[in-house]
Specification:
Elements (H helix, E strand, L loop, with lengths): L11 E5 L5 H12 L3 E7 L23 E2 L2 H4 L5 E4 L3 H14 L2 E4 L6 H10 L4 E4 L5 H16 L5 E8 L9 H13 L4 H4 E2 L14 E7 L5 E8 L4 E8 L3 H14 L5 E3 L1 H5 L4
Parallel strand pairs: 1-2, 1-4, 2-3, 4-5, 5-6, 6-12, 7-9, 8-9
Antiparallel strand pairs: 7-10, 10-11
Length: 277
């Protein structure tokens, strides 16, 4: 029996973008393993050799859902699309979701200011959860960082170190930037004004109001983030380390459930997890 059978009518109908990629396949596997979600669409770039094949063929089972390069038809049978692709791909998928009234979970990073504005505009018509990291653990870590920044607002230098696999194309990671934004907001600062992304040569003394970033790329590191609060006589480190993409997939499904029946608007994982209160 395929995933699109009538017995699945009451479940969350989910489409996956980047269906043949590592994250896409993890999401498809998570959807199939869940009790309340069903695969209803699969998208990939036109050049992908997977176009036309069954979306869950890599698992050795048939879903009855072919992978397509057409965003509109790819989301036609879905209630929600999960997108962890590239900004240009996400924007095309956003337009299709807006046209068809499909909710959207965005885990893509690296958007320009103009693209973010377009997403905010679309959120007037459809509900969107957008977060640089869908992991439940990462978002709890963000809340801890907010609390720590307020308590350690003076006398502590703040540095953010992140490490990812060799294939990641943006730096610092979206998660590291979000950590910086959360900390800066807790301190009443703007990250744009206090972030330091590179140090080389004779840099002079560290500006105590700055938030520093260090980026590591190598191997198959899924994602490590450590925030260091360095004071006089002590250091506090708050860290999150991912051993697989499974956490991102499970967090995405929580976002899918959150969006069910939700009014249009732009939400984040703090909303999904009830951490904004």
């Amino acid at each position: 029996m395929s995933d699109t059978s009538s017995s699945s009518a009451a479940r969350h109908r989910v489409a996956i973008a980047g269906a043949s990629g590592r994250m896409g396949r993890m999401l498809i596997e998570a959807v199939r393993a869940s009790d309340d979600c069903v695969l209803a669409g699969a998208l990939d770039i036109a050049a992908s050799p997977a176009i036309g094949s069954d979306a869950s063929a890599f698992l050795g089972v048939a879903s009855g859902v072919p992978i397509t390069a057409d965003p509109s038809s790819g989301v036609a049978g879905a209630q929600t699309l999960i997108d962890f692709t590239r900004p240009e791909g996400t924007m095309a998928h956003l337009a299709a979701c807006r046209e068809r009234g499909v909710a959207l979970v965005i885990g893509t990073t690296g958007f320009t200011a103009a693209q973010k504005a377009d997403i905010e505009s679309a959120a007037r018509d459809i509900p969107i959860v957008m977060a640089p990291n869908m992991s439940v653990g990462v978002n709890v870590t963000l809340k801890l960082l907010e609390m720590a920044a307020k308590a350690l607002s003076t006398g502590y230098d703040i540095e953010i170190v992140e490490a990812h696999h060799r294939h990641k194309v943006d730096a610092p990671s979206g998660t590291a930037l979000k950590m910086g934004e959360v900390i800066a907001a807790a301190l009443g600062r703007s990250l744009d004004e206090c972030a330091v992304y590179a140090r080389e040569g004779v840099t002079g003394e560290r500006d105590p109001s700055s938030i520093g970033f260090a980026t590591i790329r190598g191997g198959d590191i899924v994602g490590d983030h450590t925030v260091l609060f360095a004071g006089t006589g002590e250091r506090i480190e708050i860290a999150h380390k991912s051993s697989s993409r499974a956490g991102y997939a499970q967090g995405s499904l929580r976002a899918v459930r959150f969006l069910a029946g939700r009014k249009p608007g732009l939400y984040d994982m703090f909303d999904v997890l009830g951490l904004n209160a």
